[in-house]
Amino acid sequence: xxxxxxxxxxxxxxxxxxxxxxxxxxxxxxxxxxxxxxxxxxxxxxxxxxxxxxxxxxxxxxxxxxxxxxxxxxxxxxxxxxxxxxxxxxxxxxxxxxxxxxxxxxxxxxxxxxxxxxxxxxxxxxxxxxxxxxxxxxxxxxxxxxxxxxxxxxxxxxxxxxxxxxxxxxxxxxxxxxxxxxxxxxxxxxxxxxxxxxxxxxxxxxxxxxxxxxxxxxxxxxxxxxxxxxxxxxxxxxxxxxxxxxxxxxxxxxxxxxxxxx
Length: 262
Fold this sequence. Notes:
- The chain is mainly beta.
- It contains 3 helices and 16 strands.
- The chain has a single domain (35-260), classed as Jelly Rolls (Sandwich), CATH 2.60.120.200.
């Protein structure tokens, strides 16, 4: 058996383990599926005949298809995606107890009480207000949390009472037609609100003691029941009823960034 064959076999084994060429396609979703406190994991690879996107956490929080988003996938990395065109396209799920994460949940150790959420998005328009994920409706003061951008500024927001707004802006600007791993993290223990963009953390330590419990729907790509619509490709989103630490979020970014050329 020649050296070339042995080397090729070793290269393939390394590739399969994600050592030489990064994570395999099988790892894309599994990287997120075992996160602590997972409440929902959505990616547009598992969709039904109505266009609804299934929840990969196993908790059944299917997202409803709104407008006419178009599904496809990256031709080389093979990652599923949905294009949201900014004219009525978004995904949503009506309010339920499992989506009402306030940061006061006593089943978590006190230092881990809070909320972490985010995902991979590729904006093709960075003008005006555009939403990544939200549980936020201004009418009736039904604000809980919001992860969005205004122009090239990416921000995380929470509200303590549905009216008051706490905001942190990332130091990393949004770039058109480039994929971004964006996350909101709220900690009630440290009263910290942070926004992560491609592994870079920006934070403040004057966040409220809890997040307001509202009846607003969970929305991907929209807020205010279908406004401030995202324009671009949505690749995946997750939501955890716990504080994921900095290393967690950096690892998620590092292990999946190669799928997006970041």
